[in-house]
């Protein structure tokens, strides 16, 4: 992530030294050992901060915690306001008043959205490894069951 940011700065994709590069991370967890309550958390990382400092607690922000019984049914409905705000911040930016009462314009650019395999599958609306298009990276259509016994179960992705 740091090298990608540095490359984009060198290519002048950031118009101002005040522009901010961020990444979002998503993960689900069980807050209690017993019970069915789950939480999905969305964290924000500021890539402008040096990697030695970037992941320290005081430099991270939890922008959303979604509680519920099981993972969110419609993750997009929770993320839509975040996407809208980030779109506005990347196009229009935000005016910040400095200590000497001047103003600067800063834009915020979403660089990455990361998570573990189940979280990323939810983000991209992937139906899972047992569906006909079970690979989230390729478009090979699966075959249910064994070739000579279609009732045997399982999903198989046969190469060409």
Automatic annotation (TrEMBL):
Top-level taxon: Eukaryota
Name of protein: Uncharacterized protein
Species whose genome carries this gene: Absidia glauca
